[in-house]
Write a structure and sequence with these properties.
Layout lengths: L7 E8 L24 H15 L7 E4 L1 H10 L1 H18 L6 E2 L11 H19 L5 E3 L7 H9 L4 E5 L3 E2 L9 E4 L5 E7 L1 H9 L4 H12 L7 E7 L10 H8 L9 E2 L2 H7 L7 E2 L12 H4 L11 H26 L4 H7 L1 H4 L5 H7 L7 H19 L4 H4 L6 H21 L4 H8 L11 H13 L19 H11 L19
Parallel strand pairs: 1-2, 1-9, 1-10, 3-4, 4-5, 5-8
Antiparallel strand pairs: 6-11, 7-8
Bound molecules: zinc ion (ZN).
């Protein structure tokens, strides 16, 4: 590959939707605010994923797609899914490197997780990417760009080469633009970091130009940048088409420069092939792109969300304690059979992806000789590990109130995990979990987490969804003009608008 003398531009899109399925049935709720679509995944597919795929944009950008969104798209919007996968595979054939990167699988804030959970999330993310795209990723997206050195060690351990961070998360001379740069790890190993241009990324996210002016605007931005140097825009993929209607065309315009333009388009993998990292920088630990308070947004509460949000610390403590209890029981059972519990859990992703069935999985791990009952117990404990991982999805802590659907989702997944553990070992973990939740209080209603837990348990007993609403996957009909107006009003309600500080905010519809 010949190096170009023009400044190089890479746009990286982080495509993600929070998980929305009922943990008890796996079904999706009807979300009336997404009308005329049954849910937000469907609506954003129509506004963003499908038209970007049709425009060929996925072939000219770098991107990552969250695990839950990729699964949903594979099942429910398969033509779009297939087009995205095809485009990425073409990029791989043409340049010998993929333009997609992995994402740790449940959008956990990795610095807040224990080492073995970091590794599990990263390994499950790599396996999911490999399964969907047919080639090994070279980089990984850290949810909310949250970083600490232990996370980078875990990434490097898996053989991945690079991550993306924002310029406020690193220390050092950024004379080489987006890099790539080297970050030193333990035992004199390194990981590569691309550094996004925060100002430019936010400009596109919050002040996107019109499609007619996009080309000229980008030339103005890139003119005068160092020949051959890389500029990286990294933002939510939904910026292009969902947050800004003109975004699909803007992205197309920007990513199709002609010989007359002052810049060229590249992807991270391609650029890394031509420009190995040289300069060294340091990472500012416990930072993220959507919270400037040492991860307070997902750990203790901070001024990123209005009102009193001490509930975040209380919820996290309850979930952490429960996770430890679940892990202790799981590890005891597995170690009794001389098995390495965490390696087994890492491998369980192959069952989740449907690459092997449960019987084959057990046989591969020398458990095929066990009684059916014993096998079922081990499988239940492994399933419990999946729900226990899902409890920590970042959105549960992102917003302002414990009463919202996102924290409720975390508690509902905890209930499912506890039920599986109870089936496998007979241990009832709900008492301790209830006690822990009783100290976390909703600022809006004064209800405690324990009361919300009781409500979810009661709903589970009556066969109702803990997430509320209608679970039928049928498209609601709009029959009267009044209803149309009502739905339109809900859609344009400002509750979902992101502030500048909230770039990277997952699109949540409640
Ligand atoms: Zn914050």
């Amino acid at each position: 590959m010949i190096k170009s003398n023009k400044p190089q531009l890479c746009i990286h899109g982080h495509f993600y939707q929070p998980p929305r399925e009922d943990p008890f049935t796996g079904e999706y709720r009807i979300e009336p605010t997404a009308n005329p679509f049954p849910n937000w995944n469907a609506r954003i597919t129509d506004e963003c994923y499908a038209p970007n795929a049709q425009a060929g944009n996925f072939g000219r950008i770098s991107f990552n797609i969250g695990g839950t969104l990729a699964k949903w798209m594979d099942d429910e919007a398969h033509a779009t899914y297939e087009r995205i996968v095809d485009t990425a595979q073409q990029h791989h054939r043409r340049y010998g490197v993929s333009n997609g990167i992995a994402q740790s699988v449940h959008h956990t804030i990795l610095p807040l997780a224990r080492g073995r959970d970091k590794r599990c999330q990263i390994r499950w993310g790599i396996a999911s990417y490999l399964h969907r795209f047919g080639n090994r990723p070279e980089g990984i997206w850290l949810p909310e760009m949250a970083v600490d050195y232990e996370t980078l060690e875990a990434v490097a351990e898996t053989g991945l080469w690079f991550v993306i961070l924002s310029d406020e998360q690193v220390r050092g001379d950024l004379v080489h633009g987006a890099g790539p740069y080297k970050v030193r790890l333990a035992r004199d190993r390194f990981i590569t970091v691309f550094v996004r241009d925060r100002g430019l990324s936010n400009h596109i996210s919050f002040n996107m130009p019109s499609a007619e002016h996009a080309h000229t605007w980008m030339n103005d931005v890139m003119r005068g940048r160092k020949p051959g140097s890389l500029t990286l825009v990294a933002t939510d993929g939904e910026t292009f088409g969902h947050h800004h209607r003109q975004g699909v065309n803007v992205l197309k315009e920007i990513t199709l420069p002609t010989d007359w333009d002052v810049y060229e388009i590249t992807t991270l993998g391609r650029y890394l092939r031509q420009h190995p990292p040289m300069a060294e920088i340091e990472v500012v630990e416990n930072t993220a792109w959507s919270c400037g308070h040492h991860l307070g947004r997902w750990a203790t509460g901070c001024s990123c969300t209005p009102g009193c949000n001490y509930w975040k610390g209380g919820l996290r403590r309850a979930l952490d304690n429960l996770a430890r209890d679940i892990d202790t029981l799981y590890a005891e059972v597995l170690r009794r059979r001389d098995l390495a519990p965490w390696a087994l859990r890492d491998n369980y992703i192959n069952v989740l992806l449907g690459r092997v069935d449960e019987h084959r999985f057990l046989a591969d791990h020398h458990l095929g000789h066990l009684s059916t009952m014993a096998q079922q117990r081990i499988l239940s404990l492994l399933e419990a590990q999946v729900y226990r991982q899902r409890m920590f999805v970042s959105c549960s802590f992102f917003f302002e109130d414990l009463e919202r659907i996102e924290p409720r989702y975390a508690i509902a997944n905890a209930v499912k995990a506890m039920a599986l553990v109870s089936y496998a070992t007979g241990d009832d973990l709900t008492r301790a979990f209830r006690r822990d939740l009783s100290v976390t209080v909703s600022p809006s209603t004064g209800r405690t987490g324990a009361q919300i837990l009781e409500e979810i348990l009661a709903q589970a007993n009556f066969g109702e969804s803990p997430l509320g609403g209608d679970m039928q996957l049928t498209r609601p009909e709009i029959s009267t003009p009044d209803q149309v107006e009502e739905f339109s009003a809900e859609i344009s309600a400002p509750s979902e608008v992101e502030s500048e500080e909230e770039s990277g905010d997952p699109e949540v519809s409640e």
